[in-house]
Amino acid sequence: MKTAYVLLTAALVASVLFALAYRPQYTPPPFEPRAVRGIPQPAESIGHVALDAHNFSFMIASALYQQQDGSLQIYLTNLPENEVYLMCEVIDLDGRILYRSGLLRPGEYLAGFYPQTRPANEAIAVRVHIYALEPESFFSAGTITIGGTLLPS
Amino acid sequence: MRNRQIGQAGGLVAINRGEITNCCSLMKINAGKKTTGGLVGENAGKISASCYSGESRRLSGGVFGSGAGEVKNSYYFHSGPDSSKRLGLLKDPSLARGFGTVSSAEDAQALGFDTESRWKYIGGPQVMMFNSESWFFDVSKSRLYSRCFKKPLVHAGPRDSAKSEYENIPQVKSIHTAQELIAFAEKVNAGDPEAVGGYIRLEDDIDLSGMAWKSIGNDPSKAFKGLFDGNGHTVSNFVVNVSDSIARGLFGHLKGEVYNLNVDCVVQGGSGVTAGGVAAYCDGGVIGCCGVVAEIKGRGVNLGGLAGVNTGTIFHSYTAGTISSGAVPWVLLAPVSALIVLAILIPALLSDLPIFAPVPFDDGIRPIGDVIDPRTGRNFVTVQFEREIDVNLATGQGQMSFMNPGTSNQNVVVQIHFTDAQAVRIMGSTGRDAGEQQRLRDNPQYDPENHRTVIAQSGAIPPGHQLDYLTLAIHPDGAALPPGQHSAIAYLIFYDIHTNNRAMMESQFPVTINAHSGV
């Protein structure tokens, strides 16, 4: 029994030291399974706006409406001429990630996605981060942040 | 160091130095490293016409675990084959009998059990139980009965000298309720002689409602010396765990006699504790026609289902329930410890999962020696480098002495650019492979005067570090920088030191390259 306690204590101490020292090895985000090739045509009420960043451009819904099932119609589009992957996160002002996409290749778009954490069905101030990643290396190619409001269904 | 607390455990009695007759135990025992016997842990007395049939781990012996006392017509009934290896490891393998070998009352009789009056054959794993018609002791036959309970006659008329001066009327104290039993126990423990030596008879089943029970006669000097007749009733629902007593049971120290009593309780051990359902110590006392259904648990020294230590007489009694040493078994320890380790590791493993891959540090960096104290709150970087870069074409190294001070909160990657037009003029080509260059030409927006080609690039230079030399790129088409002085652009790319996010603002500065052959 004493041996068991010694081993358990050693395992716990080792776990704590490992947890303190651990730096996770990088794993690229997964590609978006709901990605579709092409350029979407969202409804007029949602709209679709093009934005240019330093070395990439993209399109995104003008208005962010939370649907009744909690999904968000975002129409994030990685334009074909880009040489980067794009992904996005929608984050509330407390830093809580409400929605997160996978990677979109050039020429793909994501119409809508489901929440990581179901937000309240009310108007919520959010930030939309669009992350660009270099293919193969997955180094950052820049981030664009857009302020907006998540509108209720 | 040897654990002195290991002790003994027995389904009926932990240590027997008295007599045990016509008893049985069905206790499930898991007492760790204790010397464990199905019926008796250590036997230095006598055991006869008794049996054990229970599931237990790590039995030292089926009937008795150790000792050289007398054992007669007593057996361990088990479910496995008689030739099993487990039986061979017991202290008393010759006393083991498979259930199947006792298939009738006659078989039990042949083993020495009185199946005509005391025992009843029932078969199966239990094999035998007491004959309920005879399972009751007439307390008037107790040695204490006639000795203790007399009162002087009150004469209403002339005395008859031929008659006895006393009338044999037992002075019985009847107990009907839990409160009365508690009061009796308190009087014994206070040393009240009437209680200590009294004749007590239960008139009803007593439910103690889960109370913490202080053993009757919890001290050797206050042992119960009287006669306790359970009258076929049960004392139930109590827990013996009072920390100031190491003698734990319904009775702590018993020098008297207890008959016809059923006990249903939990006894918790502790350091130095001796525990038993009816009595911790049967100090020369008598326990007869009693039954115990109990959970005896804890570290304790001596754990017995009915009694911890017996130096008296126990007969026609049984026990059932569990005895456990309270240790966490290995089989639970592994998953519990795994869960604890995972609970520590999982948050660490899942925390800070980066979106961006980190740009590797340049192999040539060295510390500047300043205090690394990156500013927080917003992006901040200051840099210092040579605007005239001396390039040794023999080594491919350009001396730039680029410094990223410790107050920066960005890693810096340094590139040296020519415009495509410049590259063609100086090196003869842009350095790209033909396919890539053609794709650029096919783009109507391509402008060689603005489009850049990279002729040198560093790895990441973290805050508080310096890169002395930048290495020229080796171009796929073999284009190389010729000797001479050339104008170029130093292009700085910034990555957040925590998130590896590339800043949207990048900087560029004109520089002059002095390329020479290295002589």
On the 0-100 scale, what is the average pLDDT of chain A?
A: 88
Q: Work out the count of structural domains of chain B.
A: 2
Any idea of the CATH class of chain A? Mainly Beta
Question: Remind me, CATH topology of chain A?
Answer: Immunoglobulin-like
Which bin fits the share of residues in helices of chain B?
A: 10-25%
Distance between the termini of chain A: 60 Å
Largest sheet of chain A: 5 strands, antiparallel
Largest sheet of chain B: 17 strands, parallel
Notes on the protein architecture:
The complex is a heterodimer of chains A (153) and B (519). Chain A is mostly beta strands and 153 residues long. Chain A has one domain (30-151): Immunoglobulin-like. Chain A contains one helix and ten strands; from the N terminus they run αββββββββββ. Chain A is globular, with a radius of gyration of 20 Å. The relative contact order of chain A is 0.20. In chain B, α1 links the parallel β12 and β13 (96-98). In chain B, 13% of the residues lie in helices and 38% in strands. The model of chain B is unreliable at 162-166 (pLDDT under 50). Chain B has a 17-stranded parallel sheet that branches. An eight-stranded mixed sheet of chain B has the order 33-38-35-34-40-39-36-37. Chain B has a six-stranded parallel sheet with strand order 10-7-2-30-26-23, with no helix packed on it. Chain B is mainly beta and 519 residues long. The interface between A and B is medium-sized, with 29 and 30 residues.
